[in-house]
Amino acid sequence: MTNRPRYVPLAPDPCARAHLLVADHHGIDGAAFAPGHALADFPERWDIVAHALVLPEPFGGPGVQHFRSSSHLLSLLRHRLAAETMGLRLYAVGSEPFVWDVARVAIDAGMGREEFHLFATGRPVRRVSCVHCRTINPGVTTTLIVCAGCGVTLGVRDHFSRMHNAWMGVQCDAEAPGELPAIEDLSA
Amino acid sequence: MATLFKPDETFRDDYRYGNSEAAILRFPFPFGEDSYMYGVNMEPHTRPGSTGAFAVAFDVDEHYVSECAERARMLALEPGRCLVLPHMQEAEWDTLELIMESLANDYPDQFILERDGLDWAWTNRPLGLHQRFRFGDATTLPHPPFEYIVRQAQGDFTLQDQRDGTLYIDGGIATTPADWSLAFDVGMTFHEWHGPVPLAHQAGVFDRALQYLMRVRYGHPARRLNWTMTVNPRLDTSPENYPLWGPDRASLNAENIGSRLFLRVELQSFFRLPRSNALLFGIRTYLASIDDLTRVPKWGRRLHRVIRDLHPEIAGYKGLTRYQDLLIAHLARYDDGSPTSPGIAPDLAALPA
Amino acid sequence: MMDNQTLTLVVAGASLVAPGLRRVHLVAADGSRLPPAAPGAHITLTLPGRIRNSYTLVSADPERGYELIVRRSDRSRGGSQHIHDQLAIGDVVAATLPHNLFALHSQAKKHLLIGGGIGVTPMIAFLARLRETSARFELHQIAGQTETETFTRLLAPRAGERIHVHAGRSTFDLTALLAAQPLGTHVYTCGPAGLMDGVEAAAAALGWPGSHVHREDFGAAGGEPFLLRLASSGIDIAVAGDQTMLEAIEAAGVDTPSLCRGGACGVCVLPVREGTPEHRDHYLSEAERSAGCLVMPCVSRSRSATLVLDL
Fold first, then answer.
1. Rounded to two decimals, what is the model's pTM?
2. Which site among A138, B30, B330, C14 is 20 to 30 Å from C132 CA-CA?
3. What is the ipTM of this complex?
4. Chain B residues touching residue A134 (CB < 8 angstroms)
């Protein structure tokens, strides 16, 4: 058994007053939505188009708003949530690090876990925190990596911290130096 | 209190550590049956219990002075091992009050608490401390209140905030952890921080344990025993320092396993804190070598059977795999197959010569 | 009895704050410090006639003692009548240790308090803590026509505070109030069941998640008395309303295993021969509960007048 976040395909919460869906990319795959649901079920949507000329209206209401980058989106999300009232549900689609960055903004705004729904898509990529030197190793796609901070070969444990938005990396050959388990792709 | 403190023990480097015969006899041996499986083995933390270790709220034994020195050393090297989130300030004072009241009540010759309204005076004779302070005013203590008092207690502690139908580990001190990281786990829910434990989730153990813990009431603490094994009497078996202690697991052989392999038992206690309504988890760690334990015939027989028949996933999770066969071979000589009484007590008043 | 630990308190003061509302000040009978308590906590007093009633601690200080405010109710079994008509300074009362089932949420950005009638008592306790910590809050107290002045006095609004005492529910627009709350608000309600149910329903309709809605609930300890028959031992035991089945069995001198005494570990499970158990444990599966052949005596009780166990 592990401590892995479980992602459930998204559907608008029927009990909610309002919905806001944010994504870190364009063209969201249908698999992100529960059977019978699609992007069109979320009237207000934010996504990222990586273009500096884009000017979003974060308080603009129904329709699609484009943001220049994920930090641009998250910064305006903070302001939006600070002005919101109870009854909102927030949905996030994108890479795992992105959706948990969105979760952090929601939690800081006082939202409980039932008020935001996350769906991680795309090729599995993890932020790994080296427990020995505290360095965050981003963009990890395998079960073993060499820590960029202390040079040790880390095994990526199936133990995820929502607070740090990172997986735990622990030296995997401490007991028998050089004896490494087989390296596997995370998507395996 | 008749305890003679051993002030010069170390839990790293030269490992100057040993249990007196009295310490061995009061050791909280965790196996009441000849086999082990995870369960919700919680019981009220009442006196007297089946071992001296259960007779008080927070046990102070012969290793107290040395363990406090080890904690001070650890915090000097890694201050982040003590970490409390800002919203748990009330729980910090609750913890200070609970531990001071309990120690003064259970060991009146060693600890004294005098209170005049909010003006308190605390005396800790074993450590030679005397502190006057104002309860609720952190500027009157040399450390934040939680850190101040846990520096004077044996074992790790965590603070749980009870909300949203679960417990969140929102603070604690972990200088004697059995391979878990407070810095990494802080902010996790009960199920999340127990994520890595095999088998127990499917059996619903954590669901039931959580329900029980959320109903722990002020004045009615609970306790349970947990166990693993450690090579050398090392208290800091943190993931952070695994590169330092991990290699020891490969250093055991038939000659040294009796003296170098230790059964590590955690007496976990659960207290409801009154002002914050939070839960304090005490994780009191006891170490006894295989040689220590096999001096008690019942424990030698039982330990052999438990380790021999241990579920491989549990053995793997507890880090025993590398030396399990060596250990079973060593313990076999202490097991003559005779029936062994249920329960954890040694069934002896004195150790055989 | 369910709580082996009791406080022996003595009445140090008692006064009417308004017709039908009596404030009682309790201190330790031996002059010792009392346990502290978080706002929202209550104690359960044992009153004459084996009546056990729970009262919110309006204030709790280890040295100054505890304060309760009790409303005289003609419909009760006599507990409040005793407190109003008989309880006098110097009287000794047994009480449980404080217990809290209605605590402020540590992550709330704003606390919205909605009280009705005697439900003002936890609100007074909350107010003290919220003011101390400079937390963002708003309080609405529904009062009967003759009580508005009393409650305003009890709540003592300070300049700039959002504290409103409403004479009756007709001027209180619950839906508008809840709809205007910023993200991160938690609502706490205590008072008549109708008010609390109304707050829950209105919040749900506006999309509030359940974890942000809190209501005072003293908890279901104890229940109806029933007859327990131990078939193998040939003993009949009358289980009292304020005693668990396990306690009754032990009091009758019968040995039966137990461990956690909280319904979680499974050690005390006993087979049922006849009768319908009322399950309150966290151990048996849904299937086991409906089959009704097993029961955990440490927390569960009986739906039927008689329960027969294989013990």
1. 0.91
2. C14
3. 0.94
4. 183
